[in-house]
């Protein structure tokens, strides 16, 4: 079952799960829940083991979630879900998602135990935001980070060609600035990278921002600013007023648009806003190959864990120390992950709160992979 | 000299010009004007013939403009520019740009003639907006179109996974809807393509838009809407009020943000806005290979035209009739191109004004190239 928004590699994890399960010969059937929790609750399944291998392999290159996903609250429906699982003879449930989905894992496992149902529940990490606790990084992050870094690198070339405006690029990440921070790697492209980066881990100070922009204009004539969608002020209020609340969700206005307007209105200088938004988690061409491989491997590790009898765990990714980048998977009690948001640590954010440190770049570079270097004669 | 905003292939045309000029052996030097008209006026040149061939070849893969570009008004400075060109021994001037730049070509040539200076002036077409008159399509368009089409195709997969909102994607094109129209090709990706497309060639009717969106929500639970940045109402007023005028330019607010807010406020339904903006003209990974090849060839044709003694012309691209797509270059009097905006013809827009026709898709498909088909089990 997939929970929450897709990533560029959520289907790669699904491929790893299905392929490993089929290879093991230990499972009678492998089903996908159609559309997340709602599908699991109603017993609406997709028979993944009956799909041709070459079609299944296409999952590695498919954006979105090939079995759908959902954000429905399961509320008090856990006992009912257990009944449906038992009725359908399901022995193992795997949930791919973020820390909210790991909470679902914990609640579902509790409900199974209470009902005396012998069902294993295993979490598979997934988030472009990279805010899952206890792991080095989450599948989906490397691709979102690569998309943001190379796109910003290309935009830097464009702006460098004709520095007549400040371009504000908004990237996803409501509570954590991991993706915004990754745009610092755009400097690899050869045009200096973004001039300023603002992350939600620091309170946003409008006057400091305008002073930063004014200096940028005076020194370079223009430049590139990256802003997380979740910026808020010192009181914790989002810098753009919520436009409306729909059901449980708040609809926020665009941060990039707001900041560009602010530059125009307060500094009298040209500014543009760009907000690739969903493009950043759906792009197949700008994703990280390492991320695809790791996402698939995390899916395979979940199947191996199931065969070992594990339950109530999430597959983790830890770095193996050594000169070359290497990772290994492990198993983490979902209790240690559920609903905990992992934010950028202090040592990854610069002192002025408008950029990142070398330590962050060193950490993020292997996840993003090498970026192309672009020719310029300026 | 480059004029106006870059495209994904403006440097490919520059590569064609420099390489063809060097191969011809007919030129003593090949210079690039540093930063558009301002560089040409001040005699600030980049010696392109002195750059290593392998570095030069990198121009084919470089976003932005490698020699810079500019939007400065030349105003009454044409006689002065002629003086600078004569003083520096320049015999041929090539200007890469849109219909505004072709106007510059015409004015510069006139100034040369009045000054008795024997200088050839040749225009090289370039615009992601595709609004240059007299040609089948402009270099830069195919890449912007491919970026928009595949990106929207990927977003359609994302939204199809969890249809809980309407996503409004804004694409560039202030007067002409060529890029917005190209997103219809996203249907090749296998998730239906965008549900609604609005172009500036039709007056935007807010009530009709909301009725379209309401139907979309009722029928599918959500979907993807594409909107040109230049939408205006029946009186010709932009649908988003200008925020500020800076020098000669008007700064408009974001159309996607405005429309998403409208859906939330008026329909009480979730909506997101995405505005890739500059990313769409800077992306190297999602450009059209055919566009790169044609842009290079247009540059080479400009050099051949110069060797034939032509002046006051722009290189054109026309389709050669036949079963397979093929083009040929020709030469067009710049007088027929200057300042004329080429809009989408009626036969390319559907009757309701919220989509395109098959005739448009047939025309655009070879420029964009085949898009990947994505696997989904929904």
CATH class of the largest domain in chain A: Alpha Beta
Order of strands side by side in the largest beta sheet of chain A? 3-4-11-12
The quaternary state of the protein chains shown equals homodimer
Low-confidence stretches of chain A: none
The span between the termini of chain A is: 51 Å
- From N to C, what is the helix and strand string of chain A? HEHEHHEHEHEHEHEEEHEHHEEH
Number of helices of chain A: 12
CATH topology of the largest domain in chain A: Rossmann fold
Biggest interchain interface, per-side counts: A-B, 75 and 75 residues
Instruction: Return the domain count of chain A.
Output: 2
Enzyme class (chains A, B): transferase
Binding site for substrate (chains A, B): 127-129, 172-174, 229
EC number (chains A, B): 2.7.1.90
Organism (chains A, B): Collinsella stercoris DSM 13279
Could you name the key traits of this structure?
homodimer; about 375 residues; alpha/beta; Rossmann fold; 2 domains; 4-stranded mixed β-sheet; 4-stranded parallel β-sheet; metal ion binding (chains A, B); magnesium (chains A, B); PKF_sf (chains A, B); Pyrophosphate--fructose 6-phosphate 1-phosphotransferase (chains A, B); diphosphate-fructose-6-phosphate 1-phosphotransferase activity (chains A, B)
What does this structure look like?
The first copy, chain A, has 378 residues and is an alpha/beta fold. Helices cover 37% and strands 16% of the residues of chain A. Chain A has two domains: 182 residues, Rossmann fold (3-Layer(aba) Sandwich); 159 residues, Phosphofructokinase domain (Rossmann fold). In chain A, helix 8 links the parallel strand 6 and strand 7. Chains A and B meet through helix 6, strand 8, helix 9, strand 10 and helix 10 of A and helix 6, strand 8, helix 9, strand 10 and helix 10 of B.
